Amino acid sequence: MTASSICRKTAGKSAKSRIAAVGTIAVVGSLLLSGCGDQTNDKESDSVSNAPLADKLPADIRAQGVIKVGSDIAYPPVEFKDKSGNTVGIDPDLGEALGKQLGVKFEFENGTFDTLLGGLRS
């Protein structure tokens, strides 16, 4: 086998993997955009009385009204700090949507992976 035949074989594989990566990004992007529906704020929809899954939560969590999420907030677009220091990204968006269904607020707290594991144990 010559060097040129090896290069042709690996070039074909890398081109296929690039096409697969672009296709994956396109599918994920279209799925994310398909979730962008009516984004109007209705104060009544934020209340616990309109949260369809609020009764599924334990009473103590419902009473607190907050679910704290420990996360290493340094991985855009999943979760990161914007210029004003707010936590933004896919995970906070999902937390907000879950919070509307559960009638609680999701608060993201920054931590490193090793401290997050210790926090779970305690």
List keywords for this structure.
single chain, 122 residues, alpha+beta, D-Maltodextrin-Binding Protein, domain 2, 2 domains, two-stranded parallel sheet, 49% helix, extended
Topology of this protein?
Layout: H1 3-34, H2 59-64, E1 66-71, E2 80-81, E3 87-88, H3 90-102, E4 105-110, H4 113-121
Parallel strand pairs: 1-4
Antiparallel strand pairs: 2-3
Could you explain the architecture of this structure?
This protein has 122 residues and is α+β, with helices and mostly antiparallel strands. The protein has 2 domains: 1-35; 48-122, Periplasmic binding protein-like II (D-Maltodextrin-Binding Protein, domain 2). It contains 4 helices and 4 strands; from the N terminus they run ααβββαβα. The chain has helices spanning 3-34, 59-64, 90-102, 113-121, and strands at residues 66-71, 80-81, 87-88, 105-110. A hairpin with a 5-residue loop joins strand 2 (80-81) and strand 3. It starts with a helix and ends with a helix.
Count of individual helical segments: 4
Report the principal-axis shape. extended
- Given as residue ranges, the uncertain stretches (5+ residues, pLDDT < 50) are 42-46
Assess the beta-strand content as a share of residues: 5-15%
CATH architecture of the largest domain: 3-Layer(aba) Sandwich
The CATH C-level name of the largest domain is Alpha Beta
Strand order of the largest sheet: 1-4
Number of strands: 4
Mean pLDDT: 78
Helix content: 40-55%
Distance between the termini: 58 Å
The CATH homologous superfamily of the largest domain? Periplasmic binding protein-like II
Radius of gyration: 21 Å
Sheet bearing the most strands, described?
A: 2 strands, parallel
